[in-house]
Each structure stands twice: as structure tokens, then as C-alpha cells.
Amino acid sequence: MEYHRCIICLGSNTNRKNNILVATERLRKAFPDISFSSMIESKPIGTHSKKCFLNRVAIFRTHWNPTEVKEFFTSIEQEAGRRPEDKNKEIIILGIDLVVYDKKIYKPQDITCDYLLTGIRELDLTL
Question: Which of 1, 58, 75, 96 is the most buried (most CB within 10 A)?
Fold first, then answer.
């Protein structure tokens, strides 16, 4: 079975620590080899909201394809209470983004964000 390397980022600006910790536990159950950075506070980017985010970077291996990985993330976000209409209100209960899958970068705009670079350095990763 072929395994793929995934680098992800979790973020929340509402009930931040709890939502990140709940997601962390769900991800640990699905991907036992997952490693997490510490939680990193960041200012909102590209939004009018003043609510700071709590972020966390992680790396794991999986045999799932990118679509399966993203669908799993969506299920965790929905379990946390995320609704599509919240984004318009700049409420991010929980966001889990697939940043890199093997060598493919899915979130090139995120690669330059300080919180992501900090987490990548902390986990001693290379893109």
C-alpha cells in the first residue's frame, strides 16, 4: 500500500483552543503517526474581523487520496459546528486545510504565512 505525506493546518477564531484540541484528537485517532506543532496565535489575514486565530500545523502519512483527506477534514469541521454561512460573518469555528500532499501544494497562498512557516520550522519539515 502506498502512503502519502500530508502537511495540514488547523485554525479557529471562535472557542479557539477547545476546537483545535477536539480536532487534534480526531486527527490522532485517524492518523496515529501524526505530529503537531504547538498552537500559534495569528492575526486575521484578508478579513475585517479583529478576532485572532489559533493555528496548528501537522504532518502525517496516509493511503487516502486528496479528496478523501479533504472530505474527512470537512466532517471534522462540521462536527465542530462549522456552517457555510459562518464564513460570511468571518466566524471560523474550525478550519482544517490540506496544504501539501506529497509534493503538490494545495494552498500556495498559505505557504508564506508566518504561522504556517513557524509550524513547519518547529516540525523540521521541508516542503
Answer: 96
Distance (Å) of CA 102 to CA 27, 97, 118, 119 = 18, 14, 20, 18
- CB of 101 within 8 A of CB of 66? yes
Rounded CA-CA distance 19/26 in Å is 11
Identify whether the C-beta of residue 92 lies closer than 8 Å to the C-beta of residue 106: no
Q: CA torsion sign, 6 to 116 to 89 to 13?
A: positive
- By residue count, the chain amounts to 127
Q: Which of 75, 72, 53 is nearest to 62 (CA)?
A: 72
Instruction: Answer yes or no: are the C-beta atoms of 77 and 93 closer than 8 Å.
Output: yes
pLDDT tens digits along 23-66: 999 999 999 999 999 999 998 877 667 789 999 999 999 999 99
Least confident of 47-56, 94-103, 112-121: 47-56
- Whether 3 contacts 63, CB under 8 Å: yes
Alpha helix segments (H runs only) across 1-127: 16-30, 66-79, 114-122
